[in-house]
What does this fold into?
Amino acid sequence: MSAHPAAGKSGGSSGSSRHAGNTVVNFAVALHQSDWEPEFFSYLSSELEGQGSFKRCVDIADVVADVLAGLAGTVILDADFAGLDASTVSRIASHASIVGLCVDLVGESRLRQWGVDSVVLLAPGELQQSARSAMGLALELHKRRGVVVDGQTGLDSMPQDASALTLDGAGDGLSEEISSPGRKVVVFGVKAGSGATTVATGIAEALAAEHGSTTLIDLDLDSPSISDNLALTEDVGGLLRACRLAERGTLTAAGMAQTARALDDSFRVLVGLSAPHRKPEVRPVALTRVLDQILRLDRNLVIDLGSPWVAVSPSLESGELKYSLLAQDEVRTDVIEQLGVGDSLVAVIDCSPIAIAQSSILIGQIAKLAPEATMTVVINRVRKSMLKPRELAEVCERLTQMVERSVAVSVRYDLDTADKALLAGLTFKEVAPRSVAAADLNAVAEQLVRQVEFV
It folds into this structure.
């Protein structure tokens, strides 16, 4: 392996060289410029002696290139190294082991939020011991990955439990494991204009009132409208702010509570993008962190996914019409694929024969992305002039037969309440708590709860 001029090498070994049939272990070292950096790097070089080869990386692009090229199986990564964010660390971690370095608990918190579990605290007065710990932990990670190293130098001082080298952080509230016991409800429209946002808002409000604190997040990356519907225009950008904090590794539950708008004691809203062209800034790794933090705050999370589906050419073999996501919408596919037992998908269809007929293929395809989640099909804006009660019952039965573990429900058309809510910037329940639309949306939420409980 050709080293950067600033790099050190051990024993003249290269990335492709072999000694006595053993594979040489390669390391990438990424340290930011600081007063302690030269001394620490010198100690690190001494600890590496005889263990393999290493490269001193000059920037984050250098680190990523080496990892993707297979030139470094382990990266010793300083929390303050320029250019780090959650997505970049995730990309590195998918190809190599990471040992994180930090000088304080703030850096430790950032590393752990990025998903780095092996973290070493650099004690200014004990840099040699810190280097020994970092190198020993790096070798242990290589050992766990099944890489054979030359000799055993440096392993004698390794404790049997490598976690003894890492920061504990217990009691500081900085490195606690994220748990997601809450319920996720993902609402999507089969077609644009089907009323997915209205349904998502009604479900979230009903869950907040009866089944614990709830956050509603606008993840419609093409036509976000929750901020307009609820007169929260001054809060536009909440989703982007949360994702930026997550990328930096500084998003906490308290920060999440401040970023989301509290409508009452049990109902929060995280508004969406200010414009569709900003959607590349919502990256899957950061969004996953945002959703995890929300579920540390609230029992329920309702996600308005919008209608990101477009039809593509029918298969020549089956003749079936297939659907795919628009460009840059992998983030929304990722949200669905992470749904598990206890979570729900809600498909919203406008009440028209054509919309209903075209919906079954898409609903089936989306259900396959989250096989453990339950599916609820909401036929929205139902009116007798379009579907008689008997016809509606037949449609609901036919839809549930096409998708496993699904139910079909309906929400009646209530133009007066819809207009009043839109003009006032309020929910259906706030402007007309006894309206048929408010009652039906509450019934949908209760159906979701019952369906999950009986899975």
